[in-house]
Here is the input.
Amino acid sequence: MDQSADMLARRSDRIKQIAGSLGFCACGICDAGPIARRDYVLDWLAGGRHGQMSYLEESIETRLDPSMLVPGAKSAIVVAWLYRVRESVEGLPEDVQAGAEQGGDTAPARSDVSGRIARYAWGRDYHRVIRKRLYKLVDQLRAELHTPFTSRVCVDIWPVLERELAERAGIGWIGSNCLVLSRSLGSYFCLGVVLTTLDLAIDAPVPDGCGSCRRCVDACPTGALLAPRQMDARRCLSYLTIEHRSDILPQQYPRLHGQVFGCDICQQVCPYNGPQAPVSIDCDAQPRFPAGSADCRRVLAWTEDDWDGLTKGRALRRATLEMWQRNARHVLGEGKT
Here is the structure.
């Protein structure tokens, strides 16, 4: 290894040390050039499989080539933040007791009137958590390095395809359920990216670990996974409950299969998310009420103030009060026909 390569390797190693100290469960580095699956993304959009998420069509050339976001960008630092926490046998967070009151409401046990909430939304809003920590990472790099550089922190807001970069950076591979999977971590993690003009040593991608497994494809109750690595978001319960802004036809998705906000089914059946997968002790990942599930009868009684208080600082806020109540009606079998 020549002196220049050794310097880049030490710089990359230091970035990973800082990322670990900030609570990220993984950090990988790749070049900031065009993504490999350009044709797939364009075909996916052309087929309308993104539904009402029209923002995915905006700045499409930047999504296909992330270096366009930062003039002179050479590298992408990709981090993963683990959000899986310990659960009871009922699938509820251990730290949220069924009888604990908060804001005049109570956390429900699972029943035919409760709707499930996706795990990533149990704790603090991952956008805020990851963004704040990545700014700290950049600040620490500026304090330690004698090389000026430009950077931009990206956590869903900017037009960056984080999963594509995560695969290239060796965080994991894009699995059959279209999420990034890791042999050691599973898939219960969120991603963040720093695009930078820094020269860094890059990581190698990891081999695909799905093989011929179809558990997620076969388990998806709405057929959103058309085939391994092929998703029609318009059928996905996460999309329908969080991104789809208009009415949902109950005859197409009866009772939303019990999901009131998001869906974890394709992750729950994945072998990499078994008992051996790690759980987070990060304070920002720990659940707040409501988590695990929500009593849909009570959701229908929420006021704007209730919704504001229960979703503040959380990813739950992505769905408006009207959407929460729409979803609750569907779970209860009272959706519009």
Summary: Residues 7 and 232 are 44 Å apart (CA to CA).
